[in-house]
From TrEMBL:
<dbReference type="Pfam" id="PF00389">
    <property type="entry name" value="2-Hacid_dh"/>
</dbReference>
<dbReference type="InterPro" id="IPR006140">
    <property type="entry name" value="D-isomer_DH_NAD-bd"/>
</dbReference>
<dbReference type="InterPro" id="IPR036291">
    <property type="entry name" value="NAD(P)-bd_dom_sf"/>
</dbReference>
<keyword id="KW-0520">NAD</keyword>
<protein>
    <submittedName>
        <fullName>D-2-hydroxyacid dehydrogenase</fullName>
    </submittedName>
</protein>
<feature type="domain" description="D-isomer specific 2-hydroxyacid dehydrogenase NAD-binding">
    <location>
        <begin position="107"/>
        <end position="280"/>
    </location>
</feature>
<dbReference type="InterPro" id="IPR006139">
    <property type="entry name" value="D-isomer_2_OHA_DH_cat_dom"/>
</dbReference>
<feature type="domain" description="D-isomer specific 2-hydroxyacid dehydrogenase catalytic">
    <location>
        <begin position="57"/>
        <end position="312"/>
    </location>
</feature>
<dbReference type="Pfam" id="PF02826">
    <property type="entry name" value="2-Hacid_dh_C"/>
</dbReference>
<keyword id="KW-0560">Oxidoreductase</keyword>
<comment type="similarity">
    <text>Belongs to the D-isomer specific 2-hydroxyacid dehydrogenase family.</text>
</comment>
């Protein structure tokens, strides 16, 4: 019996050569247009920047869907009432960009610690200054909110620099490279200890706005906040106030509530903020890892084995 799967046009050519002979494909573009009849499809894989209109069109045109795989790690944009009522298996691609994100976090920390902006300014001014005070990451304290695959890759690299690594997760348990992990009931107590605070937690109803004014006021005045998760985990008006009034030392922000970041946003021009265009997870290896994950899960699906990265749709990750 043939299995029909719906593949995004952006990745179909890289997946299809590896499919077994009893799997047939239908392609779908970003607007939900199919190149064949999706009526009998059981599996759907979406590409990045999935529009709700496209998702709903796929759900309507493929009534026999059982499993939906997304190339993103975050799934908050998928878990709408329309999607949830279908009761599909949902898997995500958490972990495929973990190395890239972790390296980017280290880049942010070194950028701040080694005063790269000041050094580049001196270069542009053709000014040779001796005695500029640069810091080290050695013995600095890193607090990571979220100890999933991204958080663990960050911790591993930070430990190699001699940092003290603290973590926050829903169910605390010891993990390699972490000196201490606490639960969501204790996380605020660790904020004053952090030289660097990294947000690597999924966006859910519980985490939306968790980095609020109270959290920012609890941080050290020299602390540096790094967000590589979702913009809405942070209360942006409170963060703007914290940065302009000196509650914290600075921030590196790869994600925002509204993207692209509006031209009028004050975050663009704050001297203590490093803005990047949601690119921390970008890597030349990303596509091959996405393909490998999906093919492994497809083999599991065909064999009746448990799938990897199954999303708990009640928790949102």
């Amino acid at each position: 019996m043939l299995l029909k799967i719906i593949l995004p046009v952006e990745l179909a050519a890289e997946i299809e050569p590896h499919l077994p002979s009893d799997v047939v494909t239908v392609h779908v573009d970003s607007d939900g247009n199919f190149d064949d009849n999706p009526q009998d499809a059981e599996v759907y894989m979406n590409w990045y920047y999935l529009k709700k209109t496209t998702l709903y069109k796929v759900l309507a045109d493929a009534p026999k869907l059982r499993w939906h795989h997304t190339v993103s790690a975050g799934v908050n944009h998928l878990l709408t009432p329309t999607f949830l009522e279908r009761n599909l298996i949902l898997t995500n691609s958490a972990g495929v960009n973990a190395i890239a994100v972790a390296e980017f976090v280290l880049t942010f920390m070194l950028y701040h610690t080694k005063q790269i902006v000041a050094l580049q300014t001196l270069q542009h001014q053709k000014t040779w200054v001796k005695g500029l005070e640069l810091q080290e990451l050695l013995d600095k304290t890193l607090l990571i909110i979220g100890t999933g695959q991204v958080g663990r890759e960050i911790a591993q690299r930070a430990k190699a620099f001699g940092m003290k690594v603290l973590g926050i997760r829903r169910h605390p348990q010891p993990l390699p490279a972490f000196d201490q992990i606490v639960g969501l009931d204790q996380w605020r107590s660790l904020l004053p200890l952090a030289d660097y605070l990294v947000i690597a937690i999924p966006l859910t109803s519980d985490t939306q706005g968790m980095i609020d004014e109270l959290a920012l006021r609890a941080m050290d005045s020299q602390a540096y906040l790094i967000n590589v998760a979702r913009g809405a985990v942070v209360d942006e008006p409170a963060l703007l106030k914290a940065l302009t009034e000196g509650w914290i030392g600075g921030a590196a922000l790869d994600t925002f509530v509204g993207e692209p970041l509006p031209l009028a946003s004050p975050f663009w021009s704050l001297p203590n903020v490093f803005v990047t265009p949601h690119c921390a997870g970008t890597s030349s290896q990303l596509r091959s890892r996405l393909v490998a994950l999906f093919l492994d899960n497809l083999n599991r699906y065909l064999s009746g084995l448990p799938l990897r990265n199954v999303v708990n749709q009640k928790l949102g990750y």
